[in-house]
Amino acid sequence: MDFLAYPLANVLLLLYNFLGHSTVLAIAVLTLLINLLTLPLTLSQQRSARKMQEFQPELEKLQKKYAKDKERLAQEQMKLYKAAGINPMGGCLPLLIQLPIWFGLIGAIRYCIPSTPLELFQFSHHIYKWLPGVLGLVPLQSTFLGMDLGQPPSAAQWWSYLLPVLVFVTTWLQQKLLTPPTGVDRQSQTAMMNQQMQIMMPLMFMFFTLNYATGLSIYFVLSSVIRIAQYYLIDTRGSRKVGDKAQMQLKPPKD
Amino acid sequence: MSWTGLTVVGDRLYVADLEQVRALNPSDSSPVWSYPSDPQQDRRGVFYVTPAVDEKRVIVASQVPPAGFLGQPKNVVWALDRDTGRELWRFDGATGQYVEGGALSSGTFVIGNSNGKVYALDAEGGTLRWVFETGHRVWATPLIVADTVYVGSMDRHFYALNLSDGKVRWDFKSEGAFASTPALRNETLYIGAFDDRLYALDARTGTERWRFAGENWFWGSPAVYSDTVYAADVNGNVYAVNAETGAQVWHAALEAPVRAGPALSEDGSRLFIGSQNGTLYALDTADGFVLWSSASEKQVQVLSTPAVSGTVVYETLLYGPYRIQALYVDNGRQVWAYPPVVEGQ
Fold it and tell me: Total structural domains in chain B?
């Protein structure tokens, strides 16, 4: 993902230069910029997820009705999606598109606050020297609250383990808000899957950040906080309106 | 990950060769000793840094990989008997990785660490004498001259410290990180930085005498012979600079990334420099003309400064079938390669 890591690393250098040589501030502003750039994607993801939840009772009815005819079930589900204006891939696609950005950012942090000299040597040939003030900036200041932002959490700075925990908490909160309970059948397969995902995703992120530079944890925590704020500020009203509209337009499928 | 390094002292070649430290016979690469003798049974970590050698001992550092998912890597300095490779002592008090080797002089071993500290150890027993804390990683091998330690840090400062207690005598601030060992000539230190400049500093006061601008970072250590300083930037530009004035004498573009500084032949007529494309170049010090080059297989990288002893130049190689190669200074023909290729393989 170097084709993304190098530009992101250079943006990080530029921000670092303009933000008083504060690495944490530079990562925070870069997080904000990335979230702004991916806002249409995250909004689409959030709306798609919400719509899917709103039509969950209808889907479950179809599942019961065509339990023995999988082909018909698939056809009826597609009809339902079409009538409601739901793209069944709408939830996954934005997430997939964001994956390269994550990997690019991991690379950018690794290049700007390197833990091994080979990474630094590689990056020395990819600094955009035409950017103002980037000469001599690398490696960026790596210490924040006694932690090394370029290194994974370590026992020597035990408090650095708090960051992966914070990643878990904020990701869990974000997951919980973005996948509200169906309220119909808590024992249904979908509901159970949602519940598992609410734990699995944050756990995955936590284990991930245990093994990567702590600077990345800061990105994950801030990203989750931004998305939670986004949920409250924009998405709640917007998606409800869309959901209500779709509900009114929906015609029940005929046999 | 870092790079392996070697040094030739007397009739031995000492190399930090990943899972082992080796003493080899420089004439034919026959092994004298290896530490640990069986790295599968007796894991001592990965040895990267160039060994420091004095009359009695060889001192190296390694990173021992973490045990288990939440385990922490251990960073250890090892002192070995120079003749037998027997372990004399070890020091594991640093939390960060050792990227470059240390300097050994007057019974003191000084080494920088990725945790931003410079450690001075008693070479006899390995006890800690003093610690000096800089503001960023220390990835440069210090230079010890008489009672002074010169060391650069990624915090953009170049420090002169008392060898006895680690107190700062002077420090020089540049606009870029320092990651190499300075070269010394006539009370002047020559050191490159990541602000694309090569600096000449008064060794007594740290006052800047001149600066020379390159095209990219100066990471490798410069070499000095007579009145000329030779240095290479990471873009592969090799510069010969007048040691007194900082004026450029000649410039040669190798058009291959260069990490390490050059090494000089004993008579000062040739300059040897390795590149990331796996080629070792021999340049004429009079005009920078490439006299010969020794290319390796495609993925091989030469990232350490070669060592010259008599008529032979020795280099370490990364990612190749050989990890060490000896070539004739005159024509670049191979003397030997280590590990030797076994017939039929």
Answer: 3
